[in-house]
Every structure is written in structure tokens, then in C-alpha cells.
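FAQ

Q: What does a record look like?
A: Structure on top, sequence underneath. For example:
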């Protein structure tokens, strides 16, 4: 496909084709199936969601972490994980929602209740966002972030961190509160120096399709220095579609594109990298098997 026709396809929102399957399974550690399937204006039905999960499994991505961003989507995520053996859930009020006052006592109480469910394995995405939320919402964001950290620790769940243009502030809050033992930087966006600071603290770095972007050499440098046992891969679908389909709708079945770039960056064979990514995901989130202990 020519550059011009590819650009037109991106604007039309055509779904990318399936990639070559991976030689071993990996986990999409962060996806929004509700938004990827239904958009922002409707709840997807079970058959649509199951088709998305099956499409991912067909290319070597059999397990997913479905992430909530507010109370309704967190409930939806928990319900999906309860019925689908390939899916675990994370629940939270997103920092941009928190910055608008959505992380009130009632909302946080519901997140705490959901976090106690057996197939909800993480609290997130929570954190700080200095890009979409202005200074008037920063105090509310930080209060919400601190509350989510406490919920994660009280419930013994992983913490999934949203960090946008707030690197130093994120570490300040985590250090002050005491980070949960399993803390994941979703869609890691820092440079090598910030990666080192996170790795030294024992945090896990999850890389999305942004790793494949031409202007993301700093992310590839960060990934290259991250130990395999502190490394995850994700889509953040339907956002952040990897090259060569940047700008088109993302889905968990496109994880192989990011995995193969990650293999090049780290110098690790794809099959060995897949095994390491899976081991890290299981250490962070536990097993996906139905009725098995976390």
C-alpha cells in the first residue's frame, strides 16, 4: 500500500489485518474492550467482545487485562472478567475523571468494593495527568491517586499507573505513600533516566504501540535497559495502534507488532521474550485460570 493510500485508510478507520501469529503466547496487559468494541456511546454485547478476545487468541494473545476508567466501566470490566476465563480486570477512576471531581467518596467506595472481587487483580488506571487536566484539577487528581494506592495495598492488588507529563510527581506520591509491591507503569512514556528510576524501585514498565513510532527512540532506549522480569506489553486499545497501522483502530490482536519491535530493541529472541512477558504478567496479575487462587 502506498503512503497516500495508507493515510486515507487511516482516516477511514479501516481495521488493520491480522499480524503473523507469535511463536508463544503473551498477555495484553492493558486494554479497553468496552471502548474498542462499543466506542464511547454504547455498551458492546457479549458476542462482539468474545469475537475480539478470540481474534487476539488466534495470533498468540490469549489473555487480556480489561481496564476500567470510571465506576460504570469498572463494573463492566469486573463483570466481563467474572464470566470470561481469558480476561482479568482492573478498576479505578481515571485521573482525568478524578480531576473533574468524579473520584468522590461514593465512587472510591465502589472501586474498593470491586477491587475485592477475585478476578479483579489490579487497581487502575490511576495516577496523574498534566496534559489533559489543568492545574485546577491537580489536587483532586493527587488525592484520588493516593486513595487508589491505599485501596491496592489494602486489597493486595497490583497498581496500574497512568503517568502523562507527571514523572517526578508520580514518583513523589508513590514514594510518599509507599508503592504496592506490584506497581505497573502503563504505557510507559519516560526516557531512559526515568526508566532507571522506576526499575530501581522495582516497578514494572509496560510498553504500548508508541514503542514502534518513528519519533520514540527515547522509549526504545528505556525498554532496552528494562530487565525482562520488569517488562510488560500492552495495546491500550483502541488507542496507540502500532506501526505500520498508526492512526487506525487498535485491538489486542495487534500486540504482535509491538512484541516484535520489543524483541529487536532488547536483543531477545521473540519466543524467549514471549515467555518472559507472560511470566511477568502472571507475577503481577496472578493466574487467569478459572477458580484458581490469585
Amino acid at each position: 500500500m502506498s503512503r497516500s493510500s495508507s493515510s486515507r485508510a487511516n482516516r477511514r478507520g479501516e481495521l488493520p489485518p491480522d499480524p503473523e501469529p507469535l511463536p508463544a503466547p503473551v498477555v495484553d496487559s492493558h486494554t479497553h474492550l468496552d471502548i474498542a468494541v462499543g466506542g464511547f456511546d454504547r455498551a458492546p454485547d457479549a458476542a462482539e467482545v468474545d469475537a475480539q478476545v478470540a481474534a487476539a487468541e488466534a495470533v498468540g494473545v490469549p489473555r487480556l487485562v480489561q481496564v476500567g476508567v470510571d465506576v460504570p466501566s469498572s463494573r463492566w470490566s469486573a463483570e466481563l472478567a467474572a464470566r470470561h476465563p481469558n480476561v482479568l480486570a482492573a478498576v479505578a477512576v481515571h485521573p482525568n475523571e478524578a480531576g473533574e471531581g468524579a473520584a468522590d467518596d461514593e465512587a472510591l467506595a465502589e472501586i474498593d468494593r470491586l477491587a475485592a472481587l477475585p478476578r479483579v487483580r489490579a487497581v487502575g488506571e490511576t495516577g496523574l495527568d498534566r496534559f489533559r487536566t489543568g492545574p485546577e484539577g491537580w489536587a483532586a487528581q493527587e488525592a484520588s491517586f493516593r486513595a487508589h494506592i491505599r485501596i491496592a495495598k489494602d486489597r493486595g492488588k497490583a497498581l496500574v499507573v497512568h503517568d502523562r507529563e507527571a514523572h517526578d510527581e508520580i514518583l513523589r506520591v508513590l514514594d510518599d505513600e509507599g508503592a504496592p509491591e506490584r506497581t505497573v507503569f502503563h504505557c510507559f512514556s519516560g526516557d531512559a533516566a526515568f526508566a532507571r528510576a522506576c526499575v530501581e524501585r522495582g516497578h514494572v514498565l509496560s510498553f504500548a504501540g508508541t514503542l514502534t513510532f518513528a519519533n520514540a527512540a527515547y522509549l526504545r532506549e528505556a525498554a532496552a535497559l528494562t530487565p525482562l522480569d520488569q517488562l510488560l506489553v500492552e495495546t491500550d486499545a483502541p488507542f496507540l495502534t502500532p506501526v505500520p497501522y498508526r492512526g487506525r483502530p487498535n485491538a489486542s490482536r495487534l500486540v504482535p507488532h509491538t512484541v516484535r519491535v520489543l524483541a529487536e530493541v532488547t536483543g531477545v529472541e521473540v519466543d524467549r521474550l514471549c515467555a518472559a512477558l507472560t511470566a511477568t504478567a502472571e507475577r503481577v496479575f496472578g493466574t487467569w485460570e478459572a477458580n484458581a487462587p490469585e
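Q: Is there anything notable about this one?
A: The longest strand covers residues 120-129.
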